Amino acid sequence: MASPKGRHAMLTRALALMSLLFFLGTGAFVADSEVPANTSQQISLKRPLDLPRLPHRIGEGELVLVGGWELDSDNSDFGGFSALHVMGDGRLLALSDAAILAGFTLTKSDRASGSFIAPLPIRKGENSTKKDQDSESLTHDPVSGRFWVGFEHRHRIRRYSPGFARAESTGKPGAMQGWPKNGGAEAMVRRTDGSFVVFAESRSVRPGVTIGLIYRSDPSEPGAKAEAFAYQPPEGYRITDVAALPDGRLLALHRRFAYLEGVSAKIGIIAAGAVRDGVLVRSRTIATLKPPLPTDNMEGIAIDREGQRTIIWVISDDNYLAVQRTLLLKFELHKTPNRR
To answer: Where are the beta strands (DSSP E) in 195-319?
Structure first.
């Protein structure tokens, strides 16, 4: 039997390995032979989550948990979701960091109906290697129906036609070149005025402060000019996604992994008009997600409406690891007096 000192060393090595896998999300494995890919289009609810009594107020009560599920599929490409978008009426689109798009509608009977899992289309003449398909962020124009996806590693922004029928244009924004390969356009949102806001995951301005960009024109087109701002996430956290509220405020999702505390996430509100050229931007935290609440590597956030209710969806990235889960949490955003 190992000594207490030896057991401590083994535990330390195990935690270090888990941390490395968590942040790299390689999904690497060794097999004696190639495993045939499964192309199932079915998405299912794996098992009920251990939820508190619902509805469950978090923190001061601006965010209320109203539902939660674990998603699963036999499809070999399922998982790794780094961005989320809502099309309305409970229709969700989840984008993985391997350029795989999954769509489904969560029904009142807790079923994922009308599901599909498929790769994003590649623009003719462009490569399709992992370096070119490390997709991290997603945004949409409800008027034209077009989508934009942010890719890190080679730092691109690509525009897609309605329904993701084809890739229309790919930009290589000069302001994003030189960003860390795994710390690029982690969050992106198209505002109602037509401008785009892009948040870098780890391109630092100084310790604890990262860079953000504002594009007044389509960043997937050549020559798009950027205005820069600085973003200070909650201490110890990194931004993973952002979504726009109807009143112009932004909801920012952040995640953290620590050896002793494990994984947690913070959701914050960025005031309307706060993101401007040359300023330091901060968010006001409205909720912290941590055990015993169901929590994993939370990476995608989206906003929907159900009648007069503002609904917030959050999805996790399982890094294609069996020890992690694809969680989908549903919240209602409540108005609080004297809060922006």
So the answer is: 196-206, 209-215, 226-232, 238-244, 250-258, 262-270, 280-282, 284-289, 298-306, 309-316
**How far, in Å, CA of 89 to CA of 107, rounded?**
10
Indicate the pTM of the whole model: 0.87
pLDDT digits (tens, 9 = 90+) for 141-200: 999 999 999 999 889 999 999 999 999 999 999 999 999 988 899 999 999 999 999 999
User: CA torsion, points 74, 77, 78, 79, in degrees to nearest 10?
Assistant: 140
The span from the CA of 338 to the CA of 323, in Å, is 42
For 42, 140, 174, 210, 317, the CA distances from 226, given in Å and listed in that order, are: 41, 19, 9, 15, 29
Can you tell me the distance from the alpha carbon of 85 to that of 22, in angstroms, rounded to the nearest whole number? Answer: 23
21, 198, 142, 289: CA torsion to nearest 10: 50
Strand order in the sheet with 91-96: 81-88, 91-96, 100-106, 112-119
> In whole angstroms, what is the distance from residue 216 CA to residue 77 CA?
35
